[in-house]
Amino acid sequence: MGTRDVALRGADGTEVTARLDLPPGRPVASAALAGCFACLGPSPGPSRLAHALVARGFAVLLLDFTSPRADGARPDTVPSVDAVVAAAAWLRERYPPARLLVGHSLGGTAAAAALPRLPEVAALALVNAPLGAAPARERLPSAAREAGEGTLDFGPGRLRLTRRFLEDIGEVKLRQALGAFPGAVLALQAPEDRYVALEHARRWSALARRPASVMFLEGADHFLSHDADAGFAAEVLGAWATRQVTPVREREAPLPPGVVEVHEAGEGRFAQDIRVGAHRLRADEPMSVGGEDTGPTPYGLLTAALGACTAMTLRLYAARKGWPLEHVHVRLSHQKVHAKACEECETKDGRMDQLRRTVRLEGPLTEAQRERLVAIADRCPVHRTLASEVDVHTDVEQ
């Protein structure tokens, strides 16, 4: 995944630093992701949401409206609808037009307000986004409320809200924007959000012209501070965006049979994006060895391949014989063992890999049928490949 910083300037002169994340190869679509994640310090939310889209072929331009509290770190980032429009315009000039807007918190409110100015947008996804300026205005200090603008200070981060921005995200304007928007709408909402009440997701859904999708993020907080919550929101967003935004004719062509592509994901030290046919997978290492645990390990994938092949082979064999096999369950483990401890192994020097497989066969099978199926498990193609000599040849692409 390619990543670089991008400097944006809105029509009002507001400067915003954005991050561009690119998929391997040509993007099939673009998305602008605006959020307010940094108020409580580092959050896995932005990277997980962006990666879910990049992994599906999107170019993603991510802008965060929050600023660090420490004086002199960098100027305040001011939320603005213009910044969202500028992000979409930047993408339009260089990549496929931004068919998707994703907005977290007031970034989502700003994205919704930008819809009338972005006719290319086909879908809007909102994450814990308030409908209107009232929730933010109510949290301003009393003097700032009277002045109509001010700074929300959360501790590690802050938001400087201008009078114009609060006017641009007024509820009347949002109702008009959603009422005229013909595209798809997704509202992801944490029921226990301290800053945005659950009713906002329902109200977003009610305003949409088309039936909207609402997903509750049980147990999550406003900022998606926990990796499991951010990961779940990302999975939902990625699947929904692929279906709503990317026409079938624009989706990536499947890889030929037998071809697999692996690219560094750019998330953590070890994470890898894998393409197999028309499918995408993730591999990683556990946190205990410096990974982010965003997917199974390479050995986990190898072991899973043996288990899947075992179950498929037994199913095919039982079906061909007409045997009453109702369900196959395969449990496997992988470990390194001393070769001397392996009675069936030819080599006796050093350590070797051992895969242990336990098969459970359900159904009214005879004892002879069960014994035969256990024997057939050793004949599954992946088992035979692992047990044979494999030639791996490496070429270097210029």
Descriptive account of the structure:
There is one protein chain. The protein is an alpha/beta fold and 398 residues long. The chain is elongated and about 85 Å long. It folds into three domains: 2-250, Rossmann fold, CATH 3.40.50.1820; 262-289, no CATH class; 298-387, GMP Synthetase, Chain A, domain 3 (2-Layer Sandwich). A hairpin with a 3-residue loop joins strand 8 (150-153) and strand 9. It has helices at 45-54, 81-94, 106-114, 134-138, 142-147, 163-168, 171-180, 199-207, 227-245, 298-321, 367-377, 381-387, and strands at residues 2-9, 15-22, 29-35, 58-64, 67-68, 98-104, 123-127, 150-153, 157-161, 184-189, 213-216, 260-264, 272-276, 279-283, 327-338, 351-362. Helices cover 33% and strands 26% of the residues. Strands 1-2-4-3-6-7-10-11 form an eight-stranded mixed sheet, sandwiched between helices. Strands 5-9-8 form a three-stranded antiparallel sheet. The longest helix has 24 residues, at 298-321.
